[in-house]
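Notes from hallway chat w/ T.B., transcribed later so I don't forget. T.B. wanted the structure written out for a chain they're using in a teaching module, and asked if we could keep both sequence and structure tokens in one place. Agreed to drop them here.
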Amino acid sequence: MRNLIFIAALFLTVTMFPQDYDYGTNMPLEDYNLVLGLNCFPTKYQFSKDTKLIEQAKQARALGTNIFKSSITDRYLKDYGFTKSDANNIMDVIKIIPDYDQIFKMDFNYYLFWVHTATGINWKKGIDNKQEKRLYNEMYNFVSYLLKNYNNTGKTFLIGNWEGDWLLHGTQNRNLTPPKEHVDNMTKWLQIRSRAINDAKKDIKHNNVSLYYYIEVNLVKKGMEGKTCITKDILPNVDVDFVSYSSYESSKKKDYEANKESLIRVLDYIEGQLKPKEGLPFKRRVFIGEYGGHAFDDRPATHLRQFNNAKDIMQIALEEDLPFTLYWQMYNNEYTPEGISKNMSLINEKGKKRPLYDLHQRYYKQVNDYLKTYKTQYNVYPSHEDFKKKALGILEAVYQDIEPKVLASLN
């Protein structure tokens, strides 16, 4: 109970009485995919006078990443004095919450968003012709808006969903078998989204701005065992560009070798279920949308394990040519029933920047410096293979410098 009271008081303090906050100096960003990023979803605590969305974006920018991932949802309307009933579609959400356009205008190169629907339509109950038209128009209009408004900006947008297998299952119980009706209805919903995105990209004249559609999955091993899941039963029937893998079932093994073996098997399986598609910008069509682990202040060894595991997944992502690998997340959102933080964050509830923050920031700084120097010398950016080799070397050097300090910082 004492812990719950403390956490509640902390949230109340940082939310009701935010102070002037120094995000730090933004380093220049090179126009190159840095691969390693993180999730930036608003949580219960914050430190600035900015809105929660803007604070997350500014934290990411100050960290030094050119990748930003969050969500576009009517759930955030309450933070701006509105309710879900004030929006009939995603474009209404964009118009009501000006923060989104402010974030789009920031100098991130890559934007990934969970975008579901603000129509109130529940695909699990089936989608009739009228509902299909509304869902199609909602996505078509949103994609058209992005392509028109951010034409010639060099930005890349990726639109997807939250952990899709939990959506399909309707509960976080992996042992449940989703009924065929739900599989069919979800397939139809995802096909509608895909068709709307592809049609908008064909219809709207655009240049030097890219937009892609991805589906996020999280129970891939069920498919490998012959059981019902999105990867096995839905992916082969949807024209999707990329797949995001929320990887906790595969990326929390005891060491680097075990993680790599587990991840390669799953990632290869996912790609094997995809319809062929030409003209995509990355070597692979699957990326890690979430990874990370818990750490507890009364168990220092868990902090070291979390740190080492994160470095392993970052290394594997670079080695395996994944387009993105995104740590969960900037601020923590997971607590024990007693209110104890699970420390799934780069910045904790007290505003302390954890060693994983330092690992990411120093990687970004050194990789950006390398890219800038290389382009100045050769007038082009390095090849993917040259970048990968250099990025792996930078990651290893930064890790070797920080890792001995992780336990010491907890004492």
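Follow-up for T.B.: The chain has 13 helices and eight strands. Might be a good example for the class.
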